[in-house]
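Please check the following for our workbook:

***
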Amino acid sequence: MPKSLYATMKALPGYREKVRDLLVGLAADVRAEPGCERFVVHTLADNPDVFHVEETYRDEDAFKAHMGTEHGRVFNQAIKTLVEGGGSTVVFLDPVI
């Protein structure tokens, strides 16, 4: 069964472009993971400081592999001083249909 989630984060004042650039780099790395099926980054239409990332992995094992990547660790470390709360808020999803 696929593993889907979304993550949100709000850039601190003056860091929107830096967070955006980090997410663009992360997207390239994550999309290259064999178990990644979807990795899409948005900003909110009414607040471009808020980023919304939609992710789907082939299954739980693919998600676990994703969580162990160096590029993910580097990204999470880099955003600690750039986003509110020092990281993203993650919400896991279960399919309905």
Remarks:
- The mean pLDDT is 98.
- The chain is about 35% helix and 35% strand.
- Helices lie at 16-31, 60-67, 70-78.
